[in-house]
């Protein structure tokens, strides 16, 4: 396994001055054709797009409000908590955490006030989002004709919402492994239900769970979807099931992001609880084809650096450079102020060679 300090180089991501939180709360990334980098934050209801002409600095920041393309479960300003993004077949796919949120203790509050804050658990409907949005000429679209098949229409759509969140959480309320965590209202970051990874392979959608982790075994959900109405998706039954579960030995860590590599799945893994590390990259060989009745043991291939209450790796994406071996771009939530933040609008991301 590579040394944890073996980042090849760094690239600069530069955002507009008026969206300061974009660079401090990055949680998901993906490249689309044309070297455009799309990023999601865990505290906004928008997507960010950057572009590079030299491969060293990504800038020309543009913000795309999700509500301009899809119908969010509630108001357009409440955060979606985007935790996963992928691009496949002219669609940008994204997923919210689907997690509950416990209020934080704050330094300007008294001990008693903070103890009372810690009692409060909040469901935020916008977090229960699984969506696809067409991409044409590097622009998001509500609908458009397929660029290679004009007879086919591409439409933005979301998984149907329900009282529990959406059709996926409805199905999981009967699951013997996951239902106890949903019914007990356990928040994310406390080993509660928390989606933090998304990867799309052909018709398969893989959702990596930060939690729950069961006696050291992390979980990947595999689903397929189909349109039930214009702009609305439902779960598609495959072999009589609405979803499949995969159990992975990641040394007790939960999943922070997923990425397809051929027919393998790369897994960014970190603690399920609110602690700093360890953080590792795993390769799940033939992961896109594994049956749901086996226990898998992916191979750890890379240690990812982490800081003390800072530099938490959250998103991975392949970065293209024909002159270099296959490499992975890694972005961090809570970036280190002294070493990673650059000026008023920039943040450094790491590149690792696979």
Q: Could you list some keywords that capture this structure?
A:
single chain, 354 residues, mainly beta, Tachylectin-2, Chain A, 9-stranded mixed sheet, 7-stranded mixed sheet, 31 strands, globular, DUF3616, DUF3616 domain-containing protein
Give a description of the structure.
- The chain has one domain (9-353): Tachylectin-2, Chain A.
- By secondary structure, it is mainly beta.
- 42% of the residues are buried.
- It contains 4 helices and 31 strands.
- 6% of the residues lie in helices and 47% in strands.
- A hairpin with a 2-residue loop joins strand 20 (225-229) and strand 21 (232-235).
- The mean pLDDT is 93.
- Strands 1, 2, 3, 4, 5, 28, 29, 30 and 31 form a 9-stranded mixed sheet that branches. Strands 6, 7, 10, 11, 14, 20 and 21 form a 7-stranded mixed sheet that branches.
Brief rundown of the structure:
The protein is 6% helix and 47% strand. It has helices at residues 21-24, 111-117, 167-172, 179-183, and strands at residues 9-14, 26-32, 36-41, 46-51, 57-65, 82-88, 91-96, 101-102, 121-122, 130-136, 139-140, 143-146, 149-155, 157-159, 161-162, 165-166, 194-201, 204-211, 217-223, 225-229, 232-235, 244-249, 254-261, 264-270, 280-284, 295-296, 299-303, 312-319, 327-333, 341-342, 346-353.
């Amino acid at each position: 396994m590579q040394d944890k300090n073996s980042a090849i180089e760094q690239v600069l991501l530069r955002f507009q001055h008026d969206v300061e939180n974009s660079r401090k709360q990055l949680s998901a990334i993906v490249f689309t054709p044309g070297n455009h980098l799309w990023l999601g934050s865990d505290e906004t209801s928008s997507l960010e797009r950057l572009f590079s002409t030299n491969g060293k600095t990504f800038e020309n920041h543009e913000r795309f409000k999700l509500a301009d393309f899809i119908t969010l479960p509630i108001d357009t300003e409440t955060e979606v908590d985007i935790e996963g993004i992928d691009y496949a077949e002219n669609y940008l796919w994204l997923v919210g955490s689907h997690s509950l949120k416990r209020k934080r203790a704050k330094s300007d509050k008294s001990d008693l006030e903070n103890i009372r804050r810690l009692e409060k658990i909040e469901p935020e409907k916008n977090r229960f989002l699984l969506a696809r949005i067409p991409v044409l000429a590097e622009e998001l679209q509500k609908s458009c004709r397929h660029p290679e098949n004009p007879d086919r229409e591409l439409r933005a759509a979301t998984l149907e919402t329900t009282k529990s969140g959406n059709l996926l959480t409805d199905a999981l309320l009967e699951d013997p492994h996951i239902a106890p965590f949903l019914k007990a209202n356990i928040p994310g970051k406390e080993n509660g239900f928390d989606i933090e990874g998304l990867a799309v392979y052909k018709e398969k959608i893989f959702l990596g769970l930060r939690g729950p982790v069961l006696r050291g075994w992390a979980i990947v959900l595999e689903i397929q979807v189909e349109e039930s109405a214009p702009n609305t998706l439902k779960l598609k039954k495959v072999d009589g099931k609405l979803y499949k579960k995969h159990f992975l030995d990641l040394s007790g860590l939960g999943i922070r992001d997923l990425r397809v590599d051929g027919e393998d799945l790369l897994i960014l893994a970190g603690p399920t609880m609110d602690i700093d590390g360890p953080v590792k990259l795993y390769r799940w060989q033939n992961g896109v084809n594994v049956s749901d009745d086996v226990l898998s043991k992916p191979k750890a291939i890379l240690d990812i650096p982490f800081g003390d209450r800072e530099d938490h790796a959250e998103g991975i994406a392949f970065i293209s450079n024909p002159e270099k071996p296959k490499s992975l771009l890694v972005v961090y939530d809570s970036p280190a102020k002294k070493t990673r933040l650059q000026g008023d609008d920039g943040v450094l991301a790491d590149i690792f060679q696979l």
